[in-house]
Design a protein that fits this description.
Elements (H helix, E strand, L loop, with lengths): L14 H19 L5 E5 L26 H14 L6 E5 L9 H11 L2 E6 L6 H9 L4 E5 L4 H8 L4 H14 L3 E8 L1 H4 L2 H11 L3 E6 L18 H20 L5 E4 L7 H7 L12 E4 L5 E2 L6 H4 L9 H7 L2 H4 L15 H4 L4 H6 L6 H5 L3
Parallel strand pairs: 1-2, 1-8, 2-3, 3-4, 4-5, 5-6, 6-7
Antiparallel strand pairs: 8-9
Helix pairs in contact: 2-3, 4-6
The chain binds S-adenosylmethionine and iron/sulfur cluster (2 copies).
Length: 373
Amino acid sequence: MPPRDSAGALRLRDFPRLVQLRREAKERARLYREPDLTYLFWESTLRCNLRCRHCGSSCEAKSPLRELDTKEILGVLDTIAEDFDASRIFVSITGGEPLVRKDLFEVVAHMSKLGLASCIVTNGVLLDERNAARLVEAGMRTVSISVDGLAQTHEAVRGKGTFRPAIAALGRARAAGITTVEAITCARPANLAELADVERVVREAGADLWRVITIDRMGRLAGADAPDMWLTPPEVRRLLDFVEARRSSLAREGRQEQVRFSCGGFLGVRREHAVRPEAGQCYAGSAVASILCDGQVGACPSLPRAWAAQGSVREQRFSAIWRDRFERYRDLSWRRSGPCESCSWFDTCLGGGLHERLVQPDEFCWLERQDGA
Ligand SMILES: C[S@@+](CC[C@H](N)C(=O)[O-])C[C@H]1O[C@@H](n2cnc3c(N)ncnc32)[C@H](O)[C@@H]1O
Ligand code: SF4
Ligand code: SF4
């Protein structure tokens, strides 16, 4: 029996939430049997204008891979529009830095023409007025911009001179006519105490959504001894308490702005819906897919490539890979191993968030990550 204050403890008053979470887990399990694509990442490039210390994709000026060219990605999108209901799919264009691709606006316009709604995830540095206007002209209505702290904390990982352009980009996106402007913050020990100020700054600049995520041990951080990037259990609790308090105060005040914690593994019955909307757990391979920069198809780009890749759009139609492959994503049996084997939460959790499980196999359980000194 876990202690009463443990993230995995269950009290009588938690039962209604438990019933709802079980219902959600059943639906997630059904989607592994009957996949339904609604969220597609396009890892547009591994090239980047920055060299962030924590970059999970190890981006540099040059890509190590032969990336899809314009004709190739437009062709893949055509097949997706032919084989799926495009109006049900949201495309998140990430990287690397999407704005280093010269054909970005052409590809976004093509997505819009096909009925695919899209957003970019960007460091903001190249999002000047002209580029913001071009995205809107191409039909984009959502932009996510990374802001990893106040000026000094942000620049400690993203490099000198990167904070002001990122903040300015939030306002430029809004002024150009982007309707959903999101700021994304990677929480780490150095920025925990300033989160309230980060929220104020990004809101004043134009963000209506603010997503706080934690850093994974991948890319430049894979195998790195970088304690300044990981949160200890008390810091994890402090972060979740903060997000929970902000969400309930925004809801109480009836405000439109939102704060949410990132998607991932089960956070416990009391936390799960308190820090993010329903269905905030992992849907990799059941509703979420990605087209990686070299044409390989996987789920989110945060997964280790060798595990994630299911086939290439250079050789097969995207829909055939989605339909016939993804066996290891959709087979839940292997997930009932290690710490999950005897866990009483398995039917609610389904074995954690996939990217966390694969990139940090010793530390993926969010109940464990919250417990302890
Ligand atoms: C890889 S970046 C690509 C988009 C763009 N270049 C940017 O930095 O926003 C996508 C998102 O992943 C986040 N990210 C980068 N490294 C990460 C890591 N090691 N763990 C978790 N998130 C990370 C970034 O902060 C950003 O919000
Ligand atoms: S996190 Fe984004 S901006 Fe930073 S190096 Fe990686 S891809 Fe570039
Ligand atoms: S041990 Fe596994 S199944 Fe149990 S809560 Fe943690 S990640 Fe989920």
